[in-house]
Design a protein that fits this description.
alpha/beta; 8 helices; 47% helix
Length: 237
């Protein structure tokens, strides 16, 4: 995917619009179902904060927003995404699960959030920050709309370092996943973009540095599943 010919944001929007119909199936299939477990871990951490207002950025088809609504029933969630097709599927899922009074899905740009300063108790992102065109601007916007003492939780792919997990992970991501993704979605670029975006993402301490630069304190990384994914967290003070 050539991000130089067209802005990354627009490329990402078009890509997710094109695979929206197969996204949920591929997510669960390609992660062997562990994406449910990863999201549940994030929600467990979020639940300890007892948030009333939550913003879920890059919400996609709403899986994380739905999980938050079910496990924190007193919360109100806004799910924002730049892909119209993903949002439409998410809206239908929310209605089907009778969560439409608790979850609002709307078009939103992570780098230009249409919310007042300090509006949310918590902001969450699952597998979305690596798609930001300007990572630091996106994180700063998230920090802006978070209340003082509010929290951020970011679930994202990491780069495992332990043998043989590193080797198996790299082979799967670079060789197997693009073939499986193309076979189901008919969009090869989407599943060659995924390993590229993970490879280029500043994970670990590098990402914690970006969070601190955006104004978050007490930044932490919790590795899961042999370091394949991490939950990053921080507090706005």
């Amino acid at each position: 995917m050539n991000m130089k010919q067209e802005g990354k944001k627009e490329q990402v929007r078009k890509m997710f619009n094109s695979i929206a119909g197969k996204y949920d199936f591929l997510n669960h299939f390609l992660s062997l179902g562990t994406d449910h477990y990863w999201r549940r871990k994030l929600v467990n951490m979020l639940k300890q904060q007892h948030p009333n207002q939550v913003l879920d950025i890059a919400t996609g088809t709403g899986d994380l927003a739905i999980s938050i609504a079910k496990r924190i029933p007193n919360s109100k969630i806004i799910g924002a995404d730049i892909s119209e097709n993903m949002l439409e599927i998410g809206k239908q899922k929310v209605i089907k699960k009778k969560l439409d009074k608790q979850i609002k899905m709307e078009l939103g740009d992570s780098e230009q959030l249409n919310f007042a300063d300090g509006f949310f108790d918590s902001v969450t992102v699952a597998f979305g920050v690596r798609n930001y065109e300007d990572l630091d601007l996106g994180l700063k916007e998230m920090q802006r709309v978070t209340k003082n003492k509010g929290t951020v939780y970011i679930l994202e792919f990491s780069k495992p370092t332990v043998f043989p997990v590193k080797q198996i992970y790299n082979f799967y991501f670079n060789s197997i996943l693009p073939l499986l993704g193309k076979g189901v979605s008919k969009d090869q670029s989407a599943y060659t973009y995924l390993p590229e975006s993970v490879k280029n993402f500043p994970d670990g301490q590098n990402f914690l540095n970006h969070l601190a630069k955006a104004g978050y304190k007490d930044v932490k990384q919790k590795k899961m599943t042999f370091g394949i994914v991490s939950i990053y967290s921080g507090i706005k003070e």
